[in-house]
Amino acid sequence: MTDKSDFLGWTCPRPLQNYPTIVMGHGAGGKMMNDLIRHLFAAQFQNPVLGRLADAATLQVNGSRLAFTTDSFVVSPLFFPGGDIGELAVNGTINDLAAVGARPLYLSVGFILEEGLPMEVLGRISGSIARACARAGVQIAAGDTKVVNKGHGDGIYINTSGLGLIPDGVAISPDKAKPGDVVLVSGTMGDHGVAVMSVREGFKFQTEIKSDTAPLADMVQEMIKAAGEIHCLRDATRGGLAAVLNELAEASQVGIEFDETKVPVRAEVLAACELLGLDPLFIANEGKMVVIVPPESSDRVLAAMRESPSGREAAVIGHVAKEHPGMVLARTEIGGTRVVDLPAGELLPRIC
Amino acid sequence: MTDKSDFLGWTCPRPLQNYPTIVMGHGAGGKMMNDLIRHLFAAQFQNPVLGRLADAATLQVNGSRLAFTTDSFVVSPLFFPGGDIGELAVNGTINDLAAVGARPLYLSVGFILEEGLPMEVLGRISGSIARACARAGVQIAAGDTKVVNKGHGDGIYINTSGLGLIPDGVAISPDKAKPGDVVLVSGTMGDHGVAVMSVREGFKFQTEIKSDTAPLADMVQEMIKAAGEIHCLRDATRGGLAAVLNELAEASQVGIEFDETKVPVRAEVLAACELLGLDPLFIANEGKMVVIVPPESSDRVLAAMRESPSGREAAVIGHVAKEHPGMVLARTEIGGTRVVDLPAGELLPRIC
Lengths: 352, 352
Fold this sequence. Notes:
homodimer; alpha+beta; CATH 3.30.1330.10; Phosphoribosyl-aminoimidazole Synthetase, Chain A, domain 2; 2 domains; 5-stranded mixed beta sheet; globular
């Protein structure tokens, strides 16, 4: 036994030993999940590749730089306005590859099916996977199917892992943000999370809120061409914009300051969030990149994003500061400043 | 909508439309799973890479030949004699890479955790994953953690995807068996399935039956060195030896004949099987390769297997025939011959 995890010795401010069992927040993309990853998984699995904690690993294999990533999808319900679990599984993994600048090439798909799942539902979801792959120009190279007893699954869980090729000269990484850099988002925040929650909770809004699930790899390649150099990219999924900015500030040991009024949010999403007491900055997206670039190229990158169907509402929202490293500050509508922290645990569970 | 699945038009002898819902047999590695893969997934996802249906896909990326595979693990219980779900997840994916002759390099690990899972259990399983990786010389490059509500999972499901490099000159494929080739197995059959089932059902045998979970990539590299050329390799998991021989006979369009008395089976596994009315040829293994090689190299390959700690009980069991393409025949103990068909559905569910 060389178990390197140390349940008793952990002394971080939000120690894992306060949770003797897994709770929903451990999968929610916030502090609790970070604690689990750092204190348990990273402690046990530690190696130089995993240590970078980017959306996808960058691997040197036989002279090529490959991107490799994995994601399991447990979204409930399986179908929601604007998409379904199949489309989400393809786009989510493509976007993790895109976030290190890779061209996605191949996906694997692992199904965990619950006994009793209607064959017709599986047919619709696999059709959706096939269309999402065709749209993004990737191929499914490997698959696996497991069946679990009725009551021991939730219809269908999907794991997609992805493999991509990083073009020469591209070196995008969460730790490359520099003071003076410009922070952009590729579009409106919160659409996916609010769309899933609305259908789950049975809310009806006048305008249907749709998931923003979309593959972003083509847009990223255009951004790279336009920019010359992109410092950081991150797919703003679980934990939303707030989590991503905190992770980038932490990884680069810089401060990030942004203007709340410049963050694009659909009026209907904002209305739903106000009704439900949620903050759109903390809500998952499934087709949005957070982008950090040197100031001299920000106009060109913004223009490239707006040319893409997935980036029409892209916006500059802030900048990287030398002060308060690791912290994210928002300028509020009324002119004040507030600290935007990493969410603790669960805001909206089972959102992806 | 370009859904290519065609529920009504299927006319295969065991049509999927007889099953309007998923049943346990769809995940059991037999005919029902093959039908699901062929008529639903392959129909929708079709592409040249996936069409080969090997244990791992062989991909040409930037001048390198990569092996890529995925596997989800839903074994119940999580701990069993000789191993646990974590070790199984690492070795299973390594063996799929090994079966195309690849050197395994990197794994991804995706956890689906059930709310309420004791943190100590997760710690033991991730420790087991770390040790299995160290043993096999692979690194975990990417990970993902999702949490599902209590009652909607089963403690822990693990997906591992794997990436390996196929050395120059190696071209192992299920469709390369030729009449006259020799068929070997790397050791005893049925250990894993019987070990899991024994603990699940609470059977006590005089000698504890242990899972054979083991990484086989090093043994395979030694076999390649010894053989010059290996035609087919397959990891004998779900569906056991019977399923693998049928798949190879079908893919190569050859007959396979083997001698039942030459298949190594532990006395205690045989006794358990007789008690329970099971056939060890149909039971899952997690550390055994089925090997098909040209006759001139079979002695050298057998010797190389026996040198490895995972192949000490390797044996020649039969040969490839020109007659009855796609069929597997066994010579029985009393001198007769029987057809060994692909198992239909579920023998032992949730075995991996």
